[in-house]
Structures are given as C-alpha cells and as structure tokens.
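Reopening this one. Same input as before:
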Amino acid sequence: MALLSRRLAPASEVIARVETSPPPKRAQEPQPASDNQAVTASGFRFRLERVRAVRERKEKLAQRELASAISRRTSSVAELRTADAHVEHAREQQRTVAAEPEAVKATDLLARQVFLERVEAQRQLRVRELEQREVEVAARDAELARAASEHEALNRLRERRRGEHDREEARRELGVLDEIASNRFHRSPA
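Same output, byte for byte:
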C-alpha cells in the first residue's frame, strides 16, 4: 500500500532536472602554451582623493552659505522697502495734519513727530542691517571663490595624474605587446 501512495514526479520535472544537471567530468587535456596572456593593468588611484572630496564638500557648503546669505540680504531689502513705505506714510500723515485748517493740539503734533522719528529710526536699523548683509554676502562670495579654486586645483591635479597614469599604462602595454611580437617572430620558422 505504501508503494501505491507514493507520488511519482511529473515528466516535466524529470526533464528539467536532467537538462540542468552538469555534464559528466572528463579528463582535462593540457592546453598548449599561448601568447594570449592577460595584461595586468593597475587601476588609477588618486592619493589625494579624500582631500579632494573634503574640498568638494567645502565648496558645496560655501555655495549653500552664500545662497542663505543672499536670501537674508533679499529679505533685508524687502524689510527696508517696507520701512521706506512706513516712513513715507508717516510723513504724508504729518503733512496732512499740518495742512488742516482747524487747530491741532500740540500733543497730537508731538505724538505724530515721535511716531515719525521712531519709524525713521526703524528704517535706519534696516539700512544698517542691509549693509551687514551686503558685507556678509561679499565674505561668503570670497569664501566660495577660495573653496572653488582649491577644489578646481585638486581636480586639475587629479586629471594630470590620471593622464600620467594612462600614458604609463600604455607604455607598459606596448612593451608587453612588443615582447609578444618579438617572441612570435623568433619562434616562427624562417
């Protein structure tokens, strides 16, 4: 009964196993000596790559800092324009009150004058802030220029060294190919 209950594998599974099984091993015949030797070329490695990567990150950081300084300067310009508008509005109110035919209390005139002076003082703060932002943008721009030149110098050095490496590899490969050709020439029957 146990033999009858045993399930037989479908024919497709058996065929798949036979097709995927490795071929039987045969005795290996020695290969004749060949001139087709692998040419070993060492890969290019720039010794200052870590320094170059640090300089690249430093340049990107300087770019971000310059962008944020420009953004702060732009907001300072907007704040100065708003302060200019407030000053002009306060001056216009001062003129309209002074031009009124009816009498204006001295305390009202004094309060308006104090308000105008306060708005002008706020405008002066905005002007000084904008000047500071301009100095900051100039400093960040100079820092970016310095970081970019350092990064670019290392990139040029890397490319020069890569060229030297490629020329040296080509010279070595040419030497190996010349040796192979010379060996074939000397082995060939004359």
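So the earlier flakiness isn't reproducible anymore. For the record, Residues 106-187 form the longest helix (82 residues).
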